[in-house]
Amino acid sequence: MARAGLTADRVTLAGAELADEVGLDHVTMSAVARRLGVKDASLYAHVRNLEDLRGRIALLAADEKTIRIAEATAGRAGRDALVGFANAWRKYAHDHPGRYTATQTPIQIDPELLAQALGPRRAVELTYSMLRAYALDEPDLTDAVRLLRSMIHGFIGLEAAGGFAHARPAEDSWIRGLDALHTLLEHWPAHHEGDPA
Amino acid sequence: MARAGLTADRVTLAGAELADEVGLDHVTMSAVARRLGVKDASLYAHVRNLEDLRGRIALLAADEKTIRIAEATAGRAGRDALVGFANAWRKYAHDHPGRYTATQTPIQIDPELLAQALGPRRAVELTYSMLRAYALDEPDLTDAVRLLRSMIHGFIGLEAAGGFAHARPAEDSWIRGLDALHTLLEHWPAHHEGDPA
DNA sequence: GGTAAAAACTAGTCTTGTTAGTTCTAGTCG
DNA sequence: CGACTAGAACTAACAAGACTAGTTTTTACC
Q1: How far apart, in whole angstroms, are the C-alpha atoms of residue B42 and residue B32?
Q2: What CA–CA distance (Å, rounded) separates B92 from B100?
Q3: B114 — contact with chain A (CB < 8 Å)?
Q4: Which residues touch strand C (CB under 7 A)?
Q5: Could you report the per-residue pLDDT of A112-165, keeping only the tens digit for each?
Q6: Measured in angstroms, what separates residue A52's CA from nucleotide C6's C1'?
Q7: For residue range B67-116, what is the model confidence (pLDDT) as tens digits?
Q8: Which residues of A fall within a CB distance of 8 Å from B140?
Q9: Which of A18, A149, B169, B194 has the fewest CB atoms nearer than 10 Å to its CB?
Q10: How far from A24 is each of A27, A103, A157, B49, B166, CA to CA, in Å?
Q11: DSSP string of A90-115?
């Protein structure tokens, strides 16, 4: 009866915390309601349904991740910026595994909600501006951005899925991978003649 | 009453097909049972529970993917092998999105089941042997393998999540990314002195 | 103090996951 | 050929969850 002061954001946050604790697919409406000391049905005043909630968690994660990356790359350039960028991204995924997996679901997010979310857009901008130091021209710049993001995202995903057998510490491969990426960006290969792309 | 001839493999296959059609997280015991013309409870004779079923789908996917990659790289070397390898991987993910996403779940697969599955192990071996043409020594070889896998896996993931805005076709970035990867592998950077890794 | 919007609730439906216990079926052995 | 058994599939049942409709607060404003 006492009003709990719910808002869409508070529900989302509770869901996000839960996701980090027990895994995204154990985030149920009931569990979130319990955590907030509220009945399940009450949540539906703030969030359309479970799918919507997941989408909101994903957007929250994107925002938070972007902020961390922005902090980590501020005032840096070249290799420093690259390393800061990648490490911030990876650390976010480690700190918030549940939120991060929410990011990976094929987009079915409410377009209206997506429009007012800065995170994803700003993340892309950050990547572009970080890579400007490497003096790439379009379309190479876009390709490089996508390669960079793919590598980081993929590494995190494989790491989480247990894809790296115990032999060599993932950490070491990560560092060397960034090294390699850095030199690749410094010597981005020219088009082979005959390649249409 | 008529015996349906269920086996763990047939249940897994039905689950996999369903996953590709409606998405992995709409794969329910009930839905699989319906598809097989059987009651839900009957499935539990062949599969421990839903989580187990998902694990089996993941292993099936790993096996299938490995086979495709093996075919695509057989008798090839260098850039040809690299491109064949990556394209086979990506094509499998496109052809079987549901199965592929099953692959990404943090490992909680029955160890006993995992032990007798060749797919994952063989996939790693294939990657190593494919990269031998590039004449890398350990630990660089392992780092390169991981970088390669990360890039491919990450690209697929971002693509599926709608991470690439419409501007430039993902396909073009993919091709150029493989180009870049190829030259990177040919000129893998030496250690910076002072780097412990 | 009265009122209206919205917050939270109660109650109920439907679907799903899972277990326990039962019946049927196929092949095996006397 | 008929009894026997392993296990395949079933029925029944329960708990938990997603979601809806309708009802009771609560709050803030007039």
Answers
A1: 11
A2: 8
A3: no
A4: A 1, 3-6, 38-39, 41-42, 45-46; B 1-3, 28-31, 40-41, 44, 49-51
A5: 777 777 877 888 889 998 998 898 998 999 999 999 999 999 999 999 988 888
A6: 21
A7: 999 999 999 999 999 999 999 999 999 999 999 999 998 767 777 777 77
A8: 176
A9: B194
A10: 5, 10, 15, 19, 28
A11: HHHHHH-HHHHHHHTSPS---HHHHH
Range A173-177, long-range pairs (CB < 8 A, 24+ positions): A173/B139, A173/B142, A173/B143, A173/B146, A173/B147, A174/A86, A174/A90, A175/B195, A175/B197, A176/B139, A176/B140, A176/B143, A176/B195, A176/B197, A177/A151, A177/B143, A177/B146, A177/B147, A177/B150
Amino acid identity of residue B35, one-letter, is R
Tell me the three state secondary structure of residue A22: helix
Residue A193 pLDDT: 56
Written as six digits, the tokens of B1 are 């009453």
Which residue shows structure tokens 């994107």?
A62
Q: What is the pLDDT of residues A40-78, one digit of tens each?
A: 999 999 999 999 999 999 999 999 999 999 999 999 999
The token pair that represents A159 in the structure block? 């790491």
